Amino acid sequence: VDNGTLTVNGTFAPRQLMVLGGKVMGSGTISALAGVGNVGGRIAPGNSIGTMAITGDFVQSVAGVFEAEVTNGSADLLNISGQASLNGTIDVRTFGANPLKGQSFTVLNAAGGRFGTFSTVLDNITGLLRPTVSYTANTVVVTISAPTFCEVAPSAPNCAFLDGLDGATTPAMQAQIQALQNLDATQIGAALNSIHPSRINGQTTLGFQFGDLVKMQLGHRSSELLWQGMGGQPSATLRAATQIASTGASADIIASAALAAMQTSSPDGGFGRAGWSVFAAGDVGTADTTNVSG
Fold first, then answer.
1. What percent helix, strand, coil does the chain show, rounded to 5?
2. Cα(52)–Cα(73) distance, rounded to whole angstroms?
3. Please, which residues have CB within 8 angstroms of residue 151's CB and are 6 or more apart in sequence?
4. Chain centroid to CA 293
5. Tens digit of pLDDT for each residue in 231-271?
6. pLDDT of 175-214, one tens digit each?
7. Largest Cα span, the chain
8. CA distance 208 to 128
């Protein structure tokens, strides 16, 4: 084979198979009396995830590539009845769902013994996950690893907390950690910041304040119409406003501003009506809360 793709899904029995270029794939058996040599092509077991068998020996030289696809729970396998002499590249890539950190897969087994190692490991797994290749006397094993979140995004305030949860026994929690590990390294910082507790607390607080706003504005408008009907002054002249411009506006700041807001008295000199409005502009949203008494 020096070009194109040879797919073997049954039994293919040449005296010898030399892969000079192109690709040999499939889930069949190659029965070659003089063995299979990958000089400059690509050996890719399976049609997706699958097993290719070689009856005889297998040799891969420095320009050859062995392609191993992995998914959650399974991987390709090249099963050799004779010896395997290895060099060149192993290309580990994802098919379908990403594998999980800590999973291990035997991707090559040689009953007659394994000699040599791959000189290059190509990582084509998406996200933070990466393949680590190890060897036994007869096998090649791919183990899925990943850097810690603090290694990828050291400035994220919750990276150490999430690293401590990695490997958690709670399935729901581990599923969330695995989802983060599937993200590209360039996305991790933003993802960790978006789930930081202070951000979530701020969004929850502002949600409650919005509900308070609707309730108070309805009461305020009803009172205003009643007051005007009785000859009072428009409440717009009676309200005081405090504006806050802060990228870190908190509930304490909003409360402090509200207490410090100006209060005005009713036309008859009594303390029958007071109003305050607070506007908070922060990195988690905007709230406008109006409180009316009287």
1. 25, 35, 35
2. 18
3. none
4. 49
5. 554 444 444 333 444 444 555 555 555 555 444 444 444 43
6. 888 888 888 888 877 777 776 665 444 444 445 555 555 5
7. 111
8. 37
CB atoms < 10 A from the CB of 204, how many?
A: 11
**Two tokens, residue 132:** 């680590």
DSSP bridge pairs for 41: none
Q: Which of 19, 257, 237, 104 is nearest to 5 (CA)?
A: 19
What's the rounded Cα separation, in Å, for the pair 29 and 197?
55
H-helix segments, 138-250 = 149-152, 159-165, 171-181, 185-194, 197-229
Residues 64 and 112: their CA atoms lie apart, in Å, by 21
**CA nearest neighbour of 240 among 213, 209, 272, 264:** 264
Cα angle value 158/161/166 (rounded, 5°): 125
